[in-house]
Amino acid sequence: MMKNMAVQVLDKTVNFVGESPLWHPQRNTLYWLDFPNNILFSHHDGHSKQVKLKVMVTALGWIDHAHLLMATSEGLFKYHIDSQVMTLIVNIEDQLTTNRSNDGRADPWGGFWVGTMNVDAKAKCGAFYRWHNGQLRKLIRELSIPNGMCFDKTRSVGYFADSLEQKLYVLKLDVDTGWPTSAPTLFYDFSELAVSPDGAVVDVHGNIWIALWDGGEVMCISPQGKHLHSVDTDTPRPTCPAFGGSDATTLFVTSAACELDKTPVKTVQHGTTLFYPSYCSGVFEPAVTV
Description:
By secondary structure, this protein is mainly beta.
């Protein structure tokens, strides 16, 4: 069932694949990527900026007022927002030229999870890693397109998707450290639909908001796995939601124009960055401890 709210366009720039929207609560700024084009976007107080990056960055976190965390094919980097200097934190699969980074997200314990995948999306070549307190561990193996990593600290669980398999999984986490205490189990199966689960976030009630590539919506799923409602994006390939604004009640959504040249535009140009003000009870993304 669709909630009745018209989508609004935050930024009209067409992203080939817009990804990893991140509200920085200390700067009151939304950041996101067009990662195939190596562009970092920011939007503050009604104005957008672009920075051309030297490498392909696929996921973002925030460290402090001055720094973002960036995931690349070489590993995790500390990025100074004003000087644009990138400093290596830890290498991840940097010697494996057939793989690259993909989705990633900070966890509520100060860690950061990042997925890797084959550059040609070959099956079961990817993984999810967690970096926390100076320690890097490979935690989930044989993934094809790792996506949708998000966390519910109240229930001590994390979620992640494999877009190629069209499945969303849940993982129990230690309440004190955030390290997994169980193997992943299936949480929601999209395989009977012509969609792929992409980026996701968790709201204050523990509901999962997940973008559906080729589904034209962001689906909201309860902690019990029930489909509560969906948000129409008016473009077929939304990629990831984010909560932001002064009270985390605005829903932002990135989208992709990839392979949509012949797909008619309704009201929203494919690849633009969208928002729904005063829409939900979200939470701000936690800082990564470095």
